[in-house]
Design a protein that fits this description.
The structure is a single chain. With 589 residues, the protein is of the alpha/beta class. The chain has 24 helices and 18 strands. A nine-stranded mixed beta sheet has the order 7-9-10-11-12-14-13-15-16. Strands 2-3-4-1-5 form a five-stranded parallel beta sheet, with helices on both faces. It is elongated.
Length: 589
């Protein structure tokens, strides 16, 4: 078995001073039992108690109190409690209501014991009003394998190393995209991934998908409290994997004759079993935002691999250059949603999307993400930045100036001036980086949205800003966008100067004092000096990339500026830290 990222979360739980019993939730077959067994290696003793076993259920019927229960458990497994770091795992705890009730006493009376409980149908049991130790337990949820875990499972050490670097090196893009396409095709169910790692044969995965579906249908008797709802569940379980990624109406879902109320109850039952999420929209662009449960939800199912299997999408997905070209873009959108859910272990972690359903201005943004008290819109689409109409509509109304687009292209930042005159930044993330969104938003805001709008704060070779007014045009050079600096306008705080007036005046005065140069040369000298002001210590080629001015022209301009004693070259020519700086005689504000 391969390592899962949640292990670090469990370790942090075990190190807490006032630790409560932990309940691990999640659908069947996502690896809950396996992950606890791996985590158990950190303990001196591990007691596994499966409560589907009638003999283990008897533990809770033979004792008169909590102390008796604990002693009986250690007696049954022939273990000594004293002086031993012991993990007790109650698996399928929903099978024994008395075990659920006893969890509070492990917190109150046995803090030396580490207790984890799990049950894929636990949430269904809670609906049946079984006594639960509120405030005496804590929760985590395990979901299907993430792309990060997938890379570890495949043993792709070098790819993983590049994946974890912030920002991503451009040379790693195609390889990571290729691996992500495999992940998007087969999904994140652990048994599927283990088989693929061993055999690399997609045909061997088919019976595993079928077995997974059968096991979920077989669980219907445990999900449902009456016969009518069981019939509905048996009907819709295969259907949800066909309709996954779409907005759905309860009435007649899956071409059925079931009424909205019946279908709603059935779908919410499967949601409690973690087989799906009903993703609801909101009309808000700022906090607090409230999902509108009266609007049509989007169906996010357990795993994208199951959607592909039941939709008949096979190897062809691997040859697609763009996931948005597959299944009307639903696969790309769904796998992004799956990654956003998998990255957090909080049971209350939800995903939502944004809509504007006013006549004449209909819009829908795929996801909203909370970052630094802001609602960040995420669009999962290819195409020109200027044509992301729904995203533009959201940004018109949003109280901040940045958004995210998830696509098949390389990591990139666009500065967009929309038709309403508002400027904002668009962080373009490759699909495979969406699980790293927190780190990239932090990198992005630190690099681009710092006071003074220093777009060259980090390594100049790592990324670029391109500029768009309504329509996106690919820049001629990697660093086109110097116009923002020349004009001195920041898109973050409208009208705020990037270069203060004294500095701009000093630079322009110095250029105007140079005799016998044409006006176009003066303009380019100004561009070059503004670039040097922002990023000192670079060489001719670097400033050519920044300004878009040819290298030969830059060589001529630096010669002029050196002769005028405005700039100086410091260091050995081939040294990394050598480059052009302002002279001490030039007042740099």
């Amino acid at each position: 078995m391969f390592a899962r990222d949640i292990i670090s979360e469990l370790t942090a739980w075990s190190e807490k001073k006032h630790r409560k019993p932990l309940i691990l939730r999640g659908a069947r077959q996502v690896g809950k039992t396996t992950i606890v067994e791996m985590f158990a290696r950190q303990f001196e003793q591990y007691l596994y108690i499966n409560l589907e076993n009638d003999n283990n259920k008897e533990l809770f019927n033979k004792n008169k109190g909590f102390d008796d229960l604990v002693q009986l458990i250690f007696l049954k497994y022939e273990k000594f409690r004293k002086g031993k770091k012991t993990l007790i795992f109650f698996d399928e705890i929903q099978q024994e209501p008395k075990a659920i009730a006893q969890l509070r006493y492990f917190y109150e009376e046995a803090p030396d014991l580490y207790v984890i409980a799990a049950g894929s149908l636990l949430d269904v049991v809670l609906k049946n009003k079984i006594s639960f130790p509120v405030g005496r337990v804590e929760y985590r949820v395990l979901r299907p394998v993430s792309f990060h875990e997938f890379l570890k499972a495949l043993g792709k050490t070098l790819a993983l190393e590049q994946f974890e670097k912030i920002p991503l090196a451009s040379f790693a893009h195609l390889r990571l995209l290729e691996l992500f396409h495999i992940y998007a095709l087969i999904g994140g169910m652990p048994e599927i991934i283990l088989n693929y790692v061993e055999n690399k044969d997609y045909t061997q995965l088919v019976p595993i998908y079928e077995t997974l579906l059968t096991s979920y249908i077989d669980d219907v008797e445990k999900y449902a409290h009456d016969q009518p709802i069981r019939h509905i569940l048996r009907y819709i379980i295969p259907k949800i994997f066909i309709e996954g990624g779409k907005r759905i109406k309860f009435q007649g879902f899956g071409d059925s004759n079931y009424k909205s109320r019946e279908m709603g109850e059935a779908l919410r039952t499967l949601e409690r079993a973690w087989l799906l999420h009903l993703v609801y929209p909101t009309v808000d662009t700022r906090l607090p935002y409230i999902p509108d449960y009266k609007k049509v939800p989007r169906l996010q199912v357990l795993d994208t691999g199951l959607i592909n299997h039941f939709a008949g999408l096979k190897i062809g997905l691997l040859s697609a250059n763009n996931l948005n070209e597959v299944y009307e873009g639903k696969i790309a959108e769904h796998i992004v949603g799956q990654e956003l859910l998998a990255k957090q272990y909080n049971v209350f972690n939800k995903i939502n999307f944004w809509v504007n359903e006013k006549k004449g201005s209909m819009a829908e943004v795929d996801f909203l993400y909370l970052f630094q008290d802001k609602l960040i819109p995420i669009e999962v689409k290819s195409g020109a930045s200027g044509k992301l109409k729904s995203l533009h509509k959201f940004m018109e109304l949003a109280p901040h100036s940045y958004a995210v687009r998830c696509y098949a292209g390389e990591l990139r930042v666009d500065k967009i001036n929309n038709k309403q005159g508002k400027a904002f930044f668009l962080l373009n993330l490759p699909y495979y980086l969406i699980s790293q969104i927190d780190k990239y938003l932090e990198w992005f805001t630190n690099s681009y949205l710092t006071p003074g709008y220093n777009i060259y704060k980090t390594n100049i070779e790592d990324r670029f800003v391109s500029e768009s007014e309504g329509e996106y045009n690919r820049p001629k050079s990697k660093y086109e966008g110097i116009k923002d600096i020349v004009e001195g306008i920041s898109p973050i705080d409208e009208g705020e100067n990037i270069l203060d007036r004294r500095t701009k005046t000093s630079i322009r005065k110095a250029i105007n004092d140079i005799e016998n140069i044409r006006s176009d040369t003066k303009s380019n000298l100004e561009k070059l000096l503004f670039a040097i002001y922002r990023v000192e210590g670079k060489k001719v080629k670097d400033y050519s990339l920044i300004t878009g001015i040819p290298v030969k022209s830059i060589e001529r301009y630096v010669k002029i500026l050196r002769e005028e004693n405005i700039i100086i070259f410091r260091g050995e020519k081939k040294a990394k830290n050598a480059g052009y700086f302002f002279t001490k005689s030039f007042e740099k504000n």
